[in-house]
Design a protein that fits this description.
2 domains, globular, 9 helices, 6-stranded mixed sheet, two-stranded antiparallel sheet
Length: 297
């Protein structure tokens, strides 16, 4: 059995990635299981999904403690959610990271073990083929490359089947299939050294709390300190305001769900990028098109 863990942010498609991978396994004649683990997390919050693929029936359930393969859809998670990403990983575990150009610097101290880190610019592929930084199909492609039973053709067919459920245009579905094929072709085929699997510690119904000692995540427990939690790192896109076009209608200020827009003494809006999550509600509500959206660099 091959166990795959996928780390992403809300809105990046981590759940879709595991669905595509699971569907690919079924089409390739394997037994497959895929599921996601998240609660009330908003767009940009760290989330995780899973896939299990096997030649024999899969009887294990629940959180994947020791993955044979890890895919990280945003390299910032290597620091922000380090304990979750590296949990159960050893030096032989392939850890594919979506990283554009600059690779994050990691120390090898506590929480950052020596892992087989493989960096690929999945975001660049997505922007070129889709026009948007949606990397779910690409992430499924790099994972599928390490599973010999899943060919590029099978992967592309799985993408088309899964995305058809979201009522997308055929053109966009075909572009995602092409993206999955390109990621599959670019990714190295890393041998997976599967380890003996211990009995499951928990079932899905008793999934771990994200703030438990076993699965720590970034949190500030001191009361009244929400401003110290800089959620701007969750952002995949950033809104930018052209004050020359702004009519000071205050709609962006009123609709911002995170109070990340302030008004200056002349009542012009300004964005607090330390806390803006990039939900783009302000962009959608602006009646004068004074707000534009930019891909976060």
């Amino acid at each position: 059995m091959i166990e795959v863990r996928i780390h992403g942010r809300g809105g990046q498609g981590a759940k879709i990635t595991s669905r595509i991978l699971g569907r690919s396994g079924l089409l390739a004649g394997l037994y497959a299981q895929d599921f996601a683990l998240f609660g009330a997390e908003r767009r940009g919050a760290p989330v995780v999904s899973f896939a299990r693929l096997s030649n024999t029936p899969i009887e294990q359930r629940g959180y994947i403690e020791e993955p044979d393969l890890v895919v990280v859809m945003d390299d910032a998670l290597l620091k922000e959610a380090r304990a979750q990403v590296f949990h159960g990983v050893d030096s032989a575990t392939p850890l594919f990271v979506n990283s554009a150009g600059t690779r994050p610097t990691l120390d090898n101290g506590a929480g950052a073990p020596a892992a087989n880190l493989i960096f690929l610019d999945l975001s660049g592929m997505a922007r070129r083929l889709l026009g948007r930084e949606i990397v779910s199909s690409a992430a499924a492609g790099v994972a599928a490359k390490c599973i010999p039973a899943i060919s590029s053709d099978v992967l592309a067919e799985a993408v088309k089947i899964e995305l058809a459920a979201f009522d997308l245009s055929q053109e966009l579905i075909d572009k995602n299939a092409a993206l999955a094929r390109e990621a599959h072709a670019c990714a190295p085929r890393v041998p997976l050294h599967t380890r003996p699997k211990p009995p499951p510690l928990m079932d899905l119904a008793a999934a771990p709390l994200v703030y438990s000692p076993q699965f720590p995540s970034p949190a500030i427990h001191h009361p009244g300190s929400a401003a110290l939690r800089k959620t701007g790192v969750w952002r995949m896109e950033r809104p930018e305001i052209d004050l020359a076009k702004c009519k000071r209608c205050f709609l962006c200020y009123l609709y911002c769900p995170d109070a990340a827009i302030r008004l200056d003494s002349d009542n012009f809006p300004h964005i607090d990028y330390d806390h803006c999550k990039g939900c783009m509600v302000c962009y959608e509500e602006c009646p004068t098109d004074a707000i534009t959206r930019r891909t976060e660099s």
